[in-house]
Design a protein that fits this description.
229 residues, alpha/beta, Rossmann fold, 7 strands, 37% helix, binds S-adenosylmethionine
Length: 229
């Protein structure tokens, strides 16, 4: 499958279960909810949720690579993120993490947790190699389909139609889709958000913006919730 997927320069970087819980308002999630994490990357959400007994699958083109390779890619991301954060400190708030150093520690702990789970999890089928907008799952296979730090964030990489195609695919395989954040890499509201919402509404979906209890990019405190009308 190698070569089929284009990562472009979307960087692998990993958040943890506590962060996902805040991004997507998951505090009262039922244990039997079937969850898919799209563009799950090296996040520890799937590993941590599986340990707690939840039913989570993660899908990402990154999973075509071996754990060592992914660790190398994350190390390169870490350098870029550290430099980027230092250069644009005014665009971030550290109420959640405390400081740049603690933020880095949280990220690296999440990635280690993912890497520890990756090979066994891949054999067990919870890490699946594929790319939006073409996912290898049957219609309605999941109750909740999440996407963290890919859609809207990479607004310069993905056009409006591609966003709509990705979210329609998330809604083909799931009952509800949630996307966070809704800002782009510059920390500006994604220019795709309003047209994507209109196009989804025209295609029979309800697409609402909901404030959540998390902010790292200044103003990045909302998720998009999509359900069928
Ligand atoms: C910034 S990481 C986010 C990882 C994780 N969701 C998180 O928030 O910690 C972005 C991820 O998007 C993945 N990606 C790139 N193109 C993709 C596509 N077409 N479909 C699904 N994932 C993709 C990358 O491989 C990378 O792991």
């Amino acid at each position: 499958m190698a070569g089929e997927f284009k990562l472009e320069d979307v960087l692998p970087w990993g958040r943890n279960k506590a962060e996902y819980t805040a991004f997507f308002d998951l505090a009262s999630l039922a244990l039997d909810t079937r969850i898919l994490d799209c563009a799950g990357g090296p996040a520890s959400f799937t590993a941590e949720m599986t340990e707690k007994g939840y039913r989570v699958t993660s899908v990402d083109p990154l999973y075509q690579f071996a754990a060592d390779d992914i660790a190398g890619q994350v190390a390169a991301t870490r350098e870029k993120m550290q430099a980027g954060l230092c250069a644009a400190l005014h665009r971030f708030v550290f109420t959640w993490h405390g400081s740049i150093k603690q933020h880095d520690q949280v990220r690296m702990a999440a990635v280690r947790r993912f890497l520890d789970d990756f090979e066994a999890g891949k054999r067990a089928g919870r890490y699946r190699t594929a790319a939006l907008p073409d996912l290898p799952f049957t219609d309605d296979a999941f109750d909740l389909v999440l996407c963290s730090h890919f859609l809207f964030l990479y607004s310069d990489h993905l056009d409006t139609d591609h966003h709509v195609a990705c979210i329609e695919e998330m809604m083909r395989i799931g009952t509800e889709a949630r996307v966070f954040p809704l800002l782009d890499l510059e920390g500006e509201p994604s220019r795709h958000l309003d047209p994507v919402r209109s196009m989804l509404e025209a295609r029979g979906f309800e697409a609402t913006v909901q404030r959540v209890d998390y902010e790292f990019q200044k103003g990045g405190h909302s998720m998009l919730r999509v359900i069928a009308r």
